[in-house]
Amino acid sequence: MKKFLILLLVIFLLLVLGSAAVAYRYPHVIAIAEEGFPAKIWPAKGLYVDVNGKPQQWPHKFKADAALSHEFGKKLQQLNLENETDALVAYHKGELKYAYFRPGFNEKTQFNSYSMAKSLIGYLVLKAIDEGEIDGLDSSIGTYLLDIKDEALRNQKIERFLTMRSGLQIEKKGPPKPLAKDAKRGPDKDASNPFTLLAQMHIEGLPGIMDQLKMPMDPSSDYHYQNVNTALLGLMLTRIYKQPLNVLLSEKIWKPAGASRAHWRTYTNEGSVTPYCCLFATVEDWAKVAYFLSKNGMTIEQITEKREPQDLTPFLQSSNVIKSMMPERFKKADLREGVYGLHVRHDILDREGESIQGPFTYFVGHGGQLVYLLPKHDLVIVRFGRKHTLLHSTVYYLWRIIQADKTYVRKAS
Questions:
Q1: How far is CA 322 from CA 67, 92, 110, 225, 300, in A?
Q2: Residue 35 has what pLDDT?
Q3: Which of 62, 285, 321, 405 is 20 to 30 A from residue 40's alpha carbon, by CA?
Q4: % of the chain exceeding 70 in pLDDT
Q5: Residues 392 and 260 in one domain
């Protein structure tokens, strides 16, 4: 018995010493364990700051669901159930035409954006170019981030970070091609490894790992989706404007779009927001932002009042900057494969027999969070869920329902 107790004591001491060694070598691991994987809805564990809004009223009501009487409403309902959709809304010409909420969720639920936040960083970078704060996409990131130690990294063009082609690697495995399959792949093994630079950055922010960021000897210019690209762009914006990202987003997009208050996760030990993840907002707010960006500065109030574009102040002034975010600049063959543009994704609707056709832009996040921007059709779609859904079928089904000239809205539970 005495030997057994001694053995237990030795094991206990070894565990204590091992834990102490891990905490000393990897202090961020404790914070990761406490916070866990980012939650799907608000409230959530972690530290957050507000993105202040200036909510505009959207003239719609949540009515009884009638879409199930429509052939494509039934198909969409099946898709929602199979892929565990939590919320799906579609607005056409500024009017709510379809809304579905899984039981337990409603129009007031604030969902986690996950990587959809990256697309907002892309628009803020273009806004900085449009305002003359950045010389252009060909500018070197080191011009604005003077504390980057590695010369090769300093000299990389901003466009490379926006297109996920910087060549910088802190997450080892790249996604398979074509790019359209990127949204359907599971996370890299390294993405959940608490002992990587990525995990350290998630807690300590870029200052904690800046000295360790170095370009490989023979960097690739291939597409390689990594959070660190967005993190560097976000830090660059805060240095340029001398304002935190949540304030920048609020002043340049969130308030002008008429969205309400949102919450954005911060690095645990550093205090600034994580540019690549975890912005909690409602489906309605995302729809307002989608209209604002796809219509280059039109708010939902202006859309519903049917104001002329020439009477409005555009979000982006430069025609070249505007074109850089348009899917039409890519070949149809490339769009069919899926294109990662400047922190947004592009694809094309070209199924024979469908009345809605042409390129579209979308944001995507972990679990199939989606925002669709189809300005030529006056259509925005917002979807949150637990599994990835069929990208094109969702649009085709919704468009068929909308063209039936009825409003299909399920009462929020």
A1: 36, 22, 30, 23, 20
A2: 83
A3: 62
A4: 81
A5: yes
